[in-house]
């Protein structure tokens, strides 16, 4: 039952794609536009046909009038008059010269007629009159006035039935319609095949390749093979191939790095446990009174502490993602004091601790996250002092509020960030504080601040490093999100 529903769904999707595809739309639009062009040609053609047909009647009437002028006293016998009128397909003829007028009449009684003057008729009038012929009754009588082409200056006025004209126009219209349909089919087919070959098929191949590549982007065999075309389609194929190749390599690399990270996390977890055991044993060595042991134990303990800290930071950074910040509004001063106490600041005769916060300043953030950020920045400053011979200086923390944004500066008077390290700030495992450091502190700090919609940067490196942390209130973040969605 499920297989049948899947087959029906697949067939329905194929029908939908066929109906809504580019090829179908292109074919329908081509036929529509070609037929529209034929209509635009048909209407003037019919109008011109009617005018030429009426001009032929005027010329035939003028020839008939010449016979009347040649008759004695300008009067024709009834039989000859009727024959001339029949040949001209009119009921009455009136030809006006500069100094004379010839009249040939057979009408039994006067009739109401529609008059058309071809001498000063515009194209719009001719087109409108031609279309009205198809709507007029078959027995309508019309009066036509004009000047034959071969005899300018003479006005020919005829009265005739419109039925023969309508029949001729219907036949002409059907001929034009058939020819238009034939031309439309041929033109539409040629245009469709050309556009389908030049545009639709390449676009369809591009679309299919993108869908196929999206199903398994790490498979190199699904990368499109660009053609040798030099137009926009060829450019799109080459750019798509380059993008897919880069994306495939990136995803493959990320997969390998993820597997490597998982392995490193497992190793770090076990290594941390082993180092913790070694640390307990080293604590017992401190009780040994041997001078050599007493001299080496502090260095051993410090090395073990650094190794354990590296394992802990690696495990923290290797988590899938940090927990979303639980933002509350709290006073900043107690948090900064807590950071200083945890790092043993100030250190008498070595590191001064200068806290200069705006009075009563509060920050809208996750307290634990911000503690980790400030702790990492201050710890890096302490380690920077420890990397120089004298190890003396000052760590300063400044904070101010500008509207809905809090800015915190952590500055030190140490050696600053090395030139080669500035390009890789906030990258994991790229230590900037001291040789042998993990380089995870700034990476974790940047990730936590980014989760708050804020920013962290190195704003000064003269006479020491100054890092600036900017945290907007949650209201500002919501407004930014609304603008992005808009």
Question: What would your notes on this structure say?
Answer:
The protein has 486 residues and is α+β, with helices and mostly antiparallel strands. It has three domains: 10-186, no CATH class; 217-320; 328-485, Heat Shock Protein 90. Helices cover 58% and strands 15% of the residues. A five-stranded mixed β-sheet has the order 2-1-5-4-3. Strands 7-9-10-12-11 form a five-stranded mixed β-sheet. A two-stranded antiparallel ribbon has the order 6-8. Strand 4 and strand 5 (155-161) form a beta hairpin. Helix 2 (22-70) packs antiparallel against helix 3 (78-88), helix 2 (22-70) runs antiparallel to helix 5 and helix 6 packs antiparallel against helix 7. It is rod-shaped and about 160 Å long. The model is unreliable at 6-19 and 433-437 (pLDDT under 50).
């Amino acid at each position: 039952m499920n297989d049948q529903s899947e087959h029906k769904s697949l067939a329905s999707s194929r029908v939908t794609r066929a109906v809504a595809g580019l090829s179908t739309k292109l074919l329908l639009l081509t036929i529509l536009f070609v037929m529209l062009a034929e209509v635009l040609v048909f209407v003037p053609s019919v109008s011109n046909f009617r005018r030429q047909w009426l001009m032929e009647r005027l010329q035939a009437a003028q020839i008939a009038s010449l016979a009347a002028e040649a008759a004695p006293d300008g009067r024709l016998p009834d039989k000859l008059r009727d024959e001339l009128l029949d040949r001209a397909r009119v009921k009455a003829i009136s030809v006006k010269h500069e100094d004379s007028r010839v009249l040939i009449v057979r009408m039994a009684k006067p009739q109401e007629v529609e008059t058309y003057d071809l001498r000063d008729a515009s194209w719009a009038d001719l087109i409108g009159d031609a279309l009205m012929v198809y709507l007029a009754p078959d027995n309508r009588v019309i009066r036509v006035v004009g000047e034959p082409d071969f005899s300018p200056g003479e006005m020919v006025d005829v009265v005739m039935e419109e039925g023969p004209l309508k029949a001729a126009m219907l036949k002409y219209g059907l001929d034009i319609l058939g020819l238009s349909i034939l031309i439309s089919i041929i033109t539409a087919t040629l245009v469709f095949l050309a556009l389908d070959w030049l545009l639709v098929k390449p676009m369809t191949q591009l679309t299919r390749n993108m869908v196929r590549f999206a199903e398994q982007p790490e498979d190199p065999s699904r990368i499109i093979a660009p053609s040798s075309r030099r137009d926009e389609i060829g450019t799109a194929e080459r750019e798509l191939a380059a993008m897919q190749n880069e994306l495939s390599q990136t995803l493959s690399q990320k997969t390998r790095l993820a597997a490597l990270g998982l392995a490193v996390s497992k190793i770090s977890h076990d290594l941390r446990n082993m180092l913790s055991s070694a640390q307990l044993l080293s604590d017992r060595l401190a009780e040994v009174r041997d001078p050599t042991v007493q001299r080496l134990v502090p260095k051993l303990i410090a090395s073990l502490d650094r190794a354990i800290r590296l394992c802990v930071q690696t495990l923290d950074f290797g988590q899938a993602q940090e927990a979303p910040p639980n933002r509350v509004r709290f006073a900043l001063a107690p948090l900064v004091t807590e950071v200083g106490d945890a790092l043993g600041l100030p250190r008498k005769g070595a590191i001064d601790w200068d806290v200069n916060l705006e009075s009563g300043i509060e920050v809208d953030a996750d307290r634990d996250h911000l503690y980790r950020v400030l702790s990492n920045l201050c710890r890096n400053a302490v380690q920077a002092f420890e990397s120089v011979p004298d190890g003396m200086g000052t760590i300063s923390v400044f904070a101010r509020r500008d509207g809905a944004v809090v800015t915190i500066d952590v500055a030190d008077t140490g050696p600053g960030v090395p030139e080669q390290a500035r390009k890789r700030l906030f990258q994991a495992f790229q230590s900037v504080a001291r040789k042998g450091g993990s380089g995870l502190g700034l990476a974790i700090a940047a990730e936590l601040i980014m989760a708050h919609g804020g920013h962290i940067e190195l704003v000064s490196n003269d006479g020491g490093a100054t890092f600036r942390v900017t945290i907007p209130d949650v209201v500002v973040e919501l407004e930014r999100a609304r603008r992005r969605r808009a």
